[in-house]
């Protein structure tokens, strides 16, 4: 009795403590701590979906992916599927005691399934499918008595199916297909067994394993390594549930005997080890307790209660004072802690060491995240001396940190600390602590981010030609310092635009963050061997060799030069590798100008010639013939123009530069006419180069416009003469008797300040581009609605938000409107009504506009002339309105990355003029209507990452179109099933074909070998069987071939590779390679993933010829 009283007292105090502490600002509940631990185990969140998980002040019920109980006091659902999250499952998830749904489907989660999942007694749905989990299925899952659905498909799970799964009486669906599970499937039935269509029924007294699960309706065990017989109680399931295994039953397609090896059924005794009834064990234990134990327990319980009460009182006192909120960094240890090797006293004695507490304060409790990668988190902070810093935190677990990695980290710190040049990142110091485990680097902060962001995220217009030339010269000087002025030399681990950081004045800084990729690669490779001194010596020696190998940097520098002048990524699926695309222009002076970024307003042809010459030297196929930076840097310093005159903004420039300026003005005007097409008919525009003088009224209006602006880049420096027609960004016409301004283009001038209403004086203005500036307006000025002759209006990336855009309806002649990256949330449905009042509109771009979640409920739209519609990344959440299907003039439709739901209407077939259709990353479902095959003009079709299902019959209609122009087809991440249609081989212009992560089955059609233009074929994670057709050997342009994680079998011969001269990535699974010993492939692979393939008794010589991987 006393024991019960003590127990009740303890429970009361614990509950009181949790409730009381949880109500303050200093502590969190168990569920908050569990969510924090889960968040800390996520290394990469590319979609930033977890960015609103605010542990300092937030309500978890408002966090992404979380649903709470009606009383808002417990988490009942955690749903973060299809987000590419990279990390581990933290055992603390077991503390979410009220959780009913745990859905983490289709991410990149690693490691094992923690046994603590079995503590979630209320869990009904567990979906961890399509990740990279490994290890066995924990037997504790058998404790999930309320579970109805378990999905663990497409991971790397090993071991046996736990017998405890048979205890799950409410289980309806179980999917463990596409893993590496083995052994017998637990389940046997007694004489009373019967099988019915809507469930499994057995005599529970004599049944075991799955035959005890009376509600089980759907089971998928395919593509594992199960052996023995299929339980009779599961025999009613479709054959696809068992195929791809090693079962004795040959009615279902099983693996080849060579893949099954010597697997034997697990003995029944082994399967039941440790399955003693816990209640029985508890009874036995209770009987064996000595008499003196009871008073000891009573005393212990009273002491624990007193301690807990003191803790509560201390918390009250602390919360009454000033509460310092800190992140409780949790330290996790296991029984096999590594012994670290500390050599700081010698190697790091001259490097500043900072404590984690200092950095925590500097980085605002590590809440100011400015970047991330799979291996690092990057924070912005301010040190006590006022220095702005970037803190790079290594995402590694303490129990995986070996002495190798400790040596590596300390060598890197010492190596980075010796860098001291204006074009290399300065290391302020480092942080290395054991409790909590921390490894951080602290660099000077570069306020403009990376060069990659400017080139490829819509900011390239802010990089004028002069800026790009200065960046190139700065990078060259930095590399010359690293390669030739340091002893030993220092090589960047990966030289690309992401490793180039830009300061406030766009000066480049080389910062080597990519080294952490190598660190974690070592982590995978070296774990478990930390006691080997010989390995340690070889490891540290390899570091020195790696840092002195500068040849790869020279090649990377050449590629980086192309990236800077062209604005193109180093690789894209449509054009392939940048170097391959550029080769046809590099050596021909008459076409070199095609390498220039289209967003550039002007460039110098002589500069391009110099850069092309340097690029050709850098990318020489023989590394020994690539010149050093000692040679290349002077070439760039002496031969390219980096002064402000290269931007033609000096009004006193010579006569030649004036002619060049006029040429650039003509080029700009012609480019505008070209891209506008029917938007601005050329017969209505006469560009004035000679003799055109604008009116005093318009000149004054433009000067007033300039007066309220901050022009830090001096792009408006020539706005001083009386004739505004000669000013930068201004175009006039001479059609009327009085010359007037018809175009104003200040795109990417970097202007700040306010927009002056004087622009309304430009009464004949029909083209206005204010994009990619930083105006101080908090909202769009309504006076723009007075420019009634506008046909082209681009406001993107220049304003923060809009509250009212009714004035748009006044622009009755508008044909092009771009308001991308402007927050329209406060405009509510007003944005839509304003836009639909412009029947002349041909192009509408509202990318990243945060639109009102639902479309206004209207049945008709005036936008029947619309040709281009971009509503991507807008947050729309509704079914696709019917009026969408009436936009029969549409040529390009992009609504990807929203939350559109429902099915596609057969009316989609009305949009017969579509050339580009992208509806990826939504929540569409159902089957694709066959009428989609009516869109004979399609060049690009992306249906990926939805919930579409069924067979893809629409391709049969589409393939019958005369001269089909389809170039790109993406079906990834759906639930498509059935065979791949043979008609795929009819799309002769197809360059990109991807259907990964579906349920396509059957044979691969040999007709795919007829796709002579195909460059990418991506089909892994399906149910394809049979062999790889030899016709693939005809695909001479194929660069990427990925067919791993299917049920393919058979032989790969030389015929499969006969003409694959362009192949760079090869991913196959469980196939037998039969190639001649002296065979030399016609390709050079960069990636080879041949998991579970039989390559021969010896390491094949043909793989040894691959030097680029």
Automatic annotation (TrEMBL):
Chain positions covered by the region annotation Disordered: 258-286
Transmembrane annotation, as ranges: 292-316, 669-693
Membrane topology annotation: Single-pass type I membrane protein
Pfam short name (any one): LRR_1
Keyword set includes Electron transport: no
Single annotated GO MF: protein serine/threonine kinase activity
Assigned keywords, A-Z: Glycoprotein, Leucine-rich repeat, Membrane, Repeat, Signal, Transmembrane, Transmembrane helix
Domain named Protein kinase: residues: 364-636
Gene Ontology CC entries for this record: endomembrane system
Localization: Endomembrane system
InterPro entries: Kinase-like_dom_sf, Leu-rich_rpt, Leu-rich_rpt_typical-subtyp, LRR_dom_sf, LRR_N_plant-typ, LRR_R13L4/SHOC2-like, Prot_kinase_dom, Ser-Thr/Tyr_kinase_cat_dom
Name of protein: Protein kinase domain-containing protein
């Amino acid at each position: 009795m006393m024991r019960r009283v003590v127990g009740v007292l303890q429970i009361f105090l614990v509950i009181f403590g949790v409730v009381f502490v949880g109500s303050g600002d200093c502590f969190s509940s168990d569920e908050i701590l569990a969510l924090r631990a889960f968040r800390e185990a996520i290394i990469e969140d590319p979609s930033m979906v977890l960015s609103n998980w605010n542990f300092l002040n937030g309500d978890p019920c408002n966090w992404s992916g979380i649903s709470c109980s009606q009383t808002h006091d417990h988490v009942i659902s955690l749903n973060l599927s299809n987000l590419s999250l990279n990390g581990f499952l933290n055992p603390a998830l077991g503390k979410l005691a009220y959780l009913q749904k745990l859905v983490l489907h289709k991410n990149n989660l690693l490691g094992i399934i923690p046994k603590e999942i079995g503590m979630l007694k209320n869990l009904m749905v567990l979906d961890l499918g399509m990740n990279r989990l490994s290890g066995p299925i924990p037997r504790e899952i058998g404790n999930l008595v309320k579970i109805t659905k378990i999905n663990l498909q497409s991971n790397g799970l090993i071991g046996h199916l736990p017998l405890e799964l048979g205890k799950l009486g409410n289980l309806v669906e179980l999917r463990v297909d596409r893993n590496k599970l083995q052994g017998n499937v637990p389940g046997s039935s007694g004489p009373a067994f019967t099988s019915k269509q809507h469930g499994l029924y057995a005599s529970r007294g004599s049944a075991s394993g799955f035959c005890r699960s009376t509600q089980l309706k759907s089971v998928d065990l395919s593509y594992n390594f199960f052996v023995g017989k299929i339980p009779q109680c599961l025999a009613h399931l479709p054959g696809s549930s068992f195929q791809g295994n090693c079962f004795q039953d040959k009615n279902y397609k099983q693996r080849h005997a060579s893949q099954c090896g010597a697997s034997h059924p697990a003995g029944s005794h082994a399967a039941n080890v440790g399955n003693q009834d816990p209640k029985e064990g508890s009874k036995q234990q209770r009987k064996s307790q000595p008499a003196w134990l009871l008073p000891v327990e009573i005393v212990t319980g009273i002491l624990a209660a007193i301690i807990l009460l003191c803790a509560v009182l201390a918390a009250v006192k602390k919360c009454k004072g000033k509460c310092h909120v800190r992140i409780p960094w949790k330290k996790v240890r296991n029984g096999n802690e590594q012994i670290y090797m500390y050599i700081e006293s010698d190697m790091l004695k001259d490097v500043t060491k900072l404590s984690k507490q200092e950095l925590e304060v500097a980085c605002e409790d590590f809440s100011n995240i400015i970047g991330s990668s799979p291996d690092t988190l990057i924070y912005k902070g301010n040190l006590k001396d006022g220095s702005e810093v970037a803190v790079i935190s290594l995402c590694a677990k303490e129990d995986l940190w070996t002495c190798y990695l400790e040596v590596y980290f300390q060598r890197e710190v010492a190596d980075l600390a010796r860098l001291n040049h204006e074009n290399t990142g300065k290391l302020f110091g480092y942080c290395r602590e054991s409790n909590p485990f921390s490894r951080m680097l602290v660099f000077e902060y570069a306020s403009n981010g990376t060069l990659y962001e400017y080139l490829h995220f819509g900011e390239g217009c802010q990089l004028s030609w002069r800026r790009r030339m200065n960046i190139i010269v700065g990078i060259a000087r930095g590399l010359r310092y690293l390669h030739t002025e340091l002893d030993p030399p220092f090589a960047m681990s990966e030289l690309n635009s992401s490793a180039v950081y830009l300061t406030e004045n766009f000066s480049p800084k080389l910062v080597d963050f990519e080294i952490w990729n190598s660190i974690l690669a070592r982590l995978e490779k070296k774990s478990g061997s930390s006691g080997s001194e010989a390995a340690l010596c070889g490891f540290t020696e390899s570091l020195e060799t790696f840092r002195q190998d500068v040849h790869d940097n020279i090649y990377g520098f050449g590629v980086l030069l192309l990236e800077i002048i062209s604005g193109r990524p180093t690789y894209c699926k449509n054009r392939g590798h940048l170097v391959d695309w550029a080769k046809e222009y590099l050596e021909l002076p008459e076409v070199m100008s095609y390498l220039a970024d289209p967003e550039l307003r002007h460039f110098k042809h002589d500069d391009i010639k110099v850069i092309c010459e340097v690029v050709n030297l850098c990318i020489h196929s023989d590394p020994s013939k690539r010149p050093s930076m000692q040679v290349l840097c002077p070439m760039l310093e002496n031969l390219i123009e980096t002064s402000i005159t290269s931007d033609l903004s000096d009004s006193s420039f010579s006569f030649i530069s004036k002619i060049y300026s006029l040429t650039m003005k003509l080029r700009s005007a012609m480019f505008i006419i070209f891209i506008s097409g029917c938007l601005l008919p050329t017969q209505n525009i006469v560009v004035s180069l000679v003799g055109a003088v604008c009116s005093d009224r318009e000149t004054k209006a433009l000067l007033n416009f300039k007066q309220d602006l901050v022009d830090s880049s001096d792009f408006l420096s020539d706005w001083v003469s009386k004739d505004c027609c000669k000013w930068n960004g201004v175009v006039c016409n001479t059609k009327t008797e009085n010359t007037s301004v018809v175009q104003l283009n200040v795109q990417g001038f970097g202007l700040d300040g306010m927009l002056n209403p004087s622009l309304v004086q430009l009464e004949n203005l029909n083209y206005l581009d204010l994009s990619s500036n930083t105006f101080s307006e908090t909202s769009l000025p309504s006076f723009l609605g007075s420019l009634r002759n506008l046909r082209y209006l681009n406001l993107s990336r220049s304003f923060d938000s809009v509250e009212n855009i009714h004035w748009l309806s006044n622009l009755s002649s508008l044909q092009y409107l771009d308001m991308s990256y402007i927050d329209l949330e406060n405009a509510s449905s007003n944005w839509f009504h304003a836009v639909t009042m412009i029947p002349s509109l041909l192009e509408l771009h509202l990318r990243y506009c945060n639109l009102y979640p639902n479309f206004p409920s209207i049945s008709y739209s005036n936008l029947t002339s619309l040709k281009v519609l971009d509503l991507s990344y807008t947050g729309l959440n509704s079914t696709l309105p019917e009026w969408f299907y009436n936009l029969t003039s549409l040529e390009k439709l992009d609504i990807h990355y929203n939350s559109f739901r429902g099915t596609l209407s057969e009316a989609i077939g009305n949009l017969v003029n579509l050339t580009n259709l992208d509806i990826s990353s939504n929540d569409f479902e159902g089957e694709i209507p066959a009428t989609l095959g009516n869109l004979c003009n399609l060049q690009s079709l992306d249906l990926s990452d939805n919930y579409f299902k069924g067979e893809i019959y629409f391709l049969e209609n589409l393939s019958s179109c005369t001269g089909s122009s389809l170039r790109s087809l993406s079906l990834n991440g759906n639930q498509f099933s059935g065979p791949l249609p043979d008609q795929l081989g009819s799309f002769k212009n197809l360059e990109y074909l991807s259907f990964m992560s579906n349920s396509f089955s059957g044979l691969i059609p040999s007709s795919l070998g007829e796709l002579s233009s195909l460059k990418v074929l991506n089909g892994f994670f399906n149910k394809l069987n049979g062999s790889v057709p030899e016709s693939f050997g005809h695909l001479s342009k194929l660069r990427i071939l990925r067919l791993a994680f299917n049920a393919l079998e058979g032989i790969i011969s030389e015929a499969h590779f006969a003409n694959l001269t362009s192949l760079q990535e090869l991913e196959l699974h469980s196939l037998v390679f039969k190639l001649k010993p002296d065979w030399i492939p016609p390709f050079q692979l960069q990636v080879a993933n041949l998991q579970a393939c039989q390559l021969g008794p010896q390491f094949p010589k043909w793989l040894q010829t691959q030097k680029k991987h």
